[in-house]
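From the methods appendix. Each design record in this collection lists the tokenized structure first, followed by the designed amino acid sequence. Records were kept in a plain field format so they could be parsed without special tools. The example shown here is representative of the layout used throughout.

RECORD:
FOLD TOKENS (195 positions):
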């Protein structure tokens, strides 16, 4: 606004009429959510065959870059999305939780495939029967394996959740399941990250 056309009492006194036509207004909360959902950075974390489809989704054909998330971060401290791609063994569960604990807040989890979501066909003692026993899951992508299109649908669903959810939400600690290992005098619980 030029000095000549500026209202005498200043911009605040003039209200919205004092703004030029090329101004946008919005709440800070909406702007932060908009920026957040378009800059989600996934951690590099593939566990089994589902990870091949996850890698395909990151390639040029499916082009995750258009969602502002082209780089799979090699450090959990630079990531805020964990895509659990594949079955989670009992041995891997504490490692998965530690990686999750090292990720930035706010952070999100997509459970990719039936194995990660429920153990799938591996209904046995070696496989965790659902990764939501270890970390809180935001979106489940169904299938064996889910196609890149299914994963992208899960990512867009997560974007919608981020855009409509609470700004300062802190996720829970999972379902509180205890993982045990053999000790000298019987099974002892395995520490899951900071819990
Ligand atoms: S859901 Fe299917 S593709 Fe994915 S890890 Fe399990 S067996 Fe492999």
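DESIGN:
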């Amino acid at each position: 606004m030029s000095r000549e056309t500026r209202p005498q009492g200043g911009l605040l006194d003039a209200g919205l009429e004092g703004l030029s036509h090329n101004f946008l207004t919005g709440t800070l909360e909406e702007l932060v959510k908009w920026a957040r959902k378009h800059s989600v950075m996934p951690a590099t974390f593939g566990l089994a065959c589902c990870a091949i489809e996850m890698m395909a989704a990151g390639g040029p054909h499916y082009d995750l870059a258009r969602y502002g998330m082209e780089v799979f971060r090699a450090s959990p401290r630079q990531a805020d999305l964990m895509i659990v791609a594949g079955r989670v063994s009992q041995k891997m569960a504490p490692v998965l939780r530690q990686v999750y604990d090292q990720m930035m807040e706010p952070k999100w989890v997509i459970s990719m495939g039936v194995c990660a979501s429920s153990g799938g066909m591996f209904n046995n003692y070696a496989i965790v029967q659902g990764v939501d026993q270890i970390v809180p899951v935001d979106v489940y992508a169904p299938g064996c394996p889910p196609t890149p299109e299914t994963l992208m649908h899960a990512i867009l669903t997560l974007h919608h959740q981020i855009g409509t959810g609470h700004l300062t939400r802190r996720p829970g600690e999972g379902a509180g399941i205890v993982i045990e290992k053999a000790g000298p005098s019987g099974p002892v619980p395995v520490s899951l990250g900071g819990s």
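APPENDIX NOTE: Residues 148-164 form the longest helix (17 residues).
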